[in-house]
């Protein structure tokens, strides 16, 4: 597993700009980017950095193509979500003690 894929983070400078279907541009803070040889995908994990009433932040994750990182794809399998949760737990971002 390659954690914090330097090319992706270097290009985006830790900010991921996503344009919604209605044209609104939202800036997200990139938590990490990594590749998994097991799944063959590259992932980016990000947050809008806005706390809810419980002082928690929503965390998002997507698949990206390192050859064309202008489009994000949805994560579809439980195996991939478990991998992302494991990475976030290892980084101390979430705690599933």
Mean pLDDT over the full residue set: 81
| Coarse shape | globular
Helix fraction by DSSP (H/I, runs of at least 4): 10-25%
Total strand segments: 6
Order of helical and strand elements:
EHEEEEEH
Oligomeric state, counting identical vs distinct chains: single chain
Q: Main sheet?
A: 6 strands, antiparallel
SS-based class: alpha+beta
Radius of gyration: 13 Å
Strand percentage, roughly? Answer: over 45%
Q: How many DSSP helices? A: 2
- End-to-end Cα distance, whole Å, is 22 Å
Low-confidence stretches: 1-6
Q: What does this entry look like structurally?
A:
The chain is α+β, with helices and mostly antiparallel strands and 97 residues long. Helices cover 22% and strands 46% of the residues. The chain has 2 helices and 6 strands, in the order E-H-E-E-E-E-E-H. Strands 1, 2, 3, 4, 5 and 6 form a 6-stranded antiparallel sheet that branches. A hairpin with a 5-residue loop joins strand 2 and strand 3. The longest helix is centred in the last third of the chain and has 14 residues. The two termini are 22 Å apart. The N terminus is likely disordered.
């Amino acid at each position: 597993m390659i954690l914090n894929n330097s090319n992706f983070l270097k290009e985006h400078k830790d900010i991921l700009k996503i344009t919604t279907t209605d044209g609104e541009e939202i800036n997200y803070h990139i938590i990490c980017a990594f590749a998994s040889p097991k799944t063959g995908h590259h992932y980016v994990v990000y947050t809008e950095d806005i706390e809810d009433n419980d002082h928690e932040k929503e965390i998002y994750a997507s698949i990206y193509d390192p050859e064309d990182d202008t489009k994000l794809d949805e994560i579809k399998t439980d195996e991939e979500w478990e991998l992302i949760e494991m990475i976030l737990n290892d980084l101390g971002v979430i705690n599933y003690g």
